[in-house]
Task: structure prediction
Amino acid sequence: MSTVRDLADFLRGRWNEEEDACTLFHELNCPVFKPASPGGARSCPYPAEIRARLATQRRILADCEKRIQRERKAGPCWPVESIVAFTAMKAFARHFELHPAWEDQWYP
Result:
């Protein structure tokens, strides 16, 4: 289970970094400029979209981990759900393959 746990921790770490950095992200041709405060700060819809995408990915990751745990508790079997779940996790991680913590065993 350490490979699954390591990959899940890697994904959570990268997604946390993305979420922290998304407030700095602003598209130059942002279609919506709204005053966020009287001081003249602006708000952009893109950080909210990034947070929504990350929330969805986190829910999928949690589902994948549950499937893998459920099959491991069931005993020896043909782990189709685990294979699909782990492949989905590896597909999420592929986006971060240039990160120093990336492990080659995570290629989908």
